[in-house]
Amino acid sequence: MKLKKLITAAVALTLTGTAMPANSVFTQCTAISAEAIVYSDYREGPLTFDIYEDHAEVVKCAQFVNGSLNIPSEAYGRPVTSIKTMAFLNCDIFSIVRIPDSVKEIGEAAFQGCKGLREIIIGDNVETIGDNAFSGCTYLREIRIPDSVTSLGQRCFSGCENLSRVTLGQGITEIPDSCFFKSGLWDIIISGNVTSIRSSAFYGSRLHEFYVPESVTDIGSYAFARCEELSYVDLGNKIDKIEKNVFQNCGNLNKVTIPDTVKAIESMAFFNTGLSRINVGKGTEYIGENAFNDCYRLHEIIIPNKKCVIYDASETLGNYLNNPIIRCYENSYPEEYAKKWGYRIDLIGSGAADDATMTTTTANVTTTTTSKPETTTTTTYDTAVTYSTTVNPATTTTTQKATTTTTAKPATTTTTTQKATTTTTSKPATTTTTTQKATTTTTAKPATTTTTTQKATTTTTSKPATTTASTQNTTTTTTAKPVTTTTTTVPEKPARKLGDVNNDGKIDAVDASMILAKYSEYSTTSLVPTEEDFEVCDVNKDKKIDSVDASSVLAYYAFISVNVVMDLTSFLDR
């Protein structure tokens, strides 16, 4: 600026042959072109302007201004049309700024770092807002972008921690890179003219729900990454690709509506989200590497496209976490993938699951449904999904060490499982389904049946019968006529949990130190580890109790302290 003033002064002296008069408020310059400055550093109140032939520009502000600031619409008789680059950079100023309608441009970093700025009112003729224009305005709470604005700069509102509400005018067609990066934004109004949401646009913001306008055709990578309060997203109906890392680390995201226009879901698109069930849409032809990895709650993925190619690795759909069900068509690419990597499969069009009503049951919840005066009971101690359709028969589903005895009519269906079970019966019949170490016995005529198991035992009779069911701990005798029922409990030593050395129901640093103590004892004395010691302390199952086992327990304890709960065996397999 000083060099510019010296050159202007030299030209003026050359042309006039006389010295320029000094002025305490501004320096007079002689114009040599249409864009030349007439007066430089013209001051009016706390503001400094450059004065041109036909307009004025704000170039600087006093470092401290108390109260609100109204930027004038004129300076030295010229309309104020621009707030230049870094004009208010890091100013410790006022609570409110009002920009007049005469201003057409807000330059790069114009108000960057103005931490005292709480409100800014933008005039109705502003057309462009530059990069970082309001970044770091940590107390800015709300802003309305007028319809006249057609261009927003990158990182325009990044770091505005308390910015909660934004209204974007009709002139905005693109939300630029990192526009609301790590802002406090949770409510935004977007017009139907926006066609693009660029990379990291809302990264780390506080959005709760987001409805992508139907006009939007592309969303950039990381656009919503680390939006930890985001729970629902509707992706509209025009985007054709879900880019890399778009929703990465959105831990509370539990529902996403994907349109059939989407052709590809790129790598890590939903990495570490809270999704429990997802339908990728009929148009999806490719699912990239780690697309759904680390989704701890995911239990069902619906892939309707037979030709959908899935990146060939077990963790693409999070298999090692909780083995979600893949719903797909028979003889399809998704079925091949599921079989190769050990996923559970539910074929679309196979019958029961397609016609059933879906019920989601979570921990310690009991759901009872009847179609006639008959009993259907579902009991679970873990998150599960149960599809159930019953016409006449009674249906009983028992999970986790439960013993159930049901006497019904000649049509009886009994299912025992540790996870979700689907049973459909349309006519009187006797159907028995048994999974996961469960034993089920069904008797249709007078008979005596004895069943012994270490897990759940279910006995069902349809006519007068005598049935005896015995477990390792309990013996029960039931008859259709008046009988005597005797229960005898045989003491049994409870099984010890791997890694829980002190048997307090949790695995932590105390258990690790106890394993080390046992290692020290056995390595310095003639004592030999007991069978129980191996059962609890030999974590890596190498037939030794040593410091490696203690380190494994410590690593597991550190992991569950900052992550979703996972059992020790799953952690070691991982």
Structure overview:
Among the domains are: 35-191, Ribonuclease Inhibitor (Leucine-rich repeat, LRR (right-handed beta-alpha superhelix)), CATH 3.80.10.10; 195-349, Leucine-rich repeat, LRR (right-handed beta-alpha superhelix) (Alpha-Beta Horseshoe); 509-573, no CATH class. A hairpin with a 3-residue loop joins strand 3 and strand 4. With 574 residues, the protein is of the alpha/beta class. Strands 1, 2, 3, 4, 7, 8, 11, 13 and 15 form a nine-stranded mixed β-sheet that branches. The longest helix has 16 residues, at 509-524.
Q: Provide the structure class.
A: alpha/beta
Q: Count the E strands.
A: 45
- Which term fits the overall shape? elongated
Measured between the Cα atoms of the first and last residue, the distance is 63 Å
Radius of gyration equals: 36 Å
* Low-confidence runs of at least 5 consecutive residues: 1-34, 351-492
The CATH topology of the domain at 35-191 = Leucine-rich repeat, LRR (right-handed beta-alpha superhelix)
Biased composition (Low complexity): 396-489
Biased composition (Basic and acidic residues): 493-504
InterPro entries: Dockerin_1_rpt (IPR002105), Dockerin_dom (IPR016134), Dockerin_dom_sf (IPR036439), LRR_5 (IPR026906), LRR_dom_sf (IPR032675), Surface_bspA-like (IPR053139)
Signal peptide: 1-21
